[in-house]
Amino acid sequence: MGSRETVIKTKATKRQPISLDTVARVRHTLPVPIFTDVVKSMQQRFVYESERMKAARDEMDKLSEAYHRYKDLQDELSNREKRWKRLYALLSPDDLPPCELAAEMFGKIDNPPELGSDVPLWEGLREYLEIVGETRISDAVLMLVRFYGSDVSRQAIESTVIRHPDVFRVRKSGGKKFISLK
User: How much is the pTM?
Assistant: First the structure.
């Protein structure tokens, strides 16, 4: 009967879950690294990181000119896109030039404007003055009425010029007021 009890006990121990004592015994028998090995590994990692930092700095130095040129072009494109949108919104469908490139650009910009969309009067006046340089206020009114309709008056133009002194300059000559960009 002794042999039968041994078989049963053996089968029972194989089915029992692993106890914490068993895990702790196995965990504590793993080799602990020696201090000198740890220091050596840290030194190697330090040298590796130093080499990688030098390589990264060297590559950054090589790419810096291209990066700065890219950033400048990004700023230029942003400014040109804003102006393109203003011009597109100011022109009527009949006034738009037949240009395949404009149609291509229209598909590449974010939030394309709608024809006749609201462009603030001061931006429209600025675009007009970019073209003509300097003009009498009365001439600006006549031109901007074509873009904005009857909502434009001499008082509206003068108010716009006063509200944006950093953009517009007023000059008087012979009793007439002339406006231009600063």
Answer: 0.57
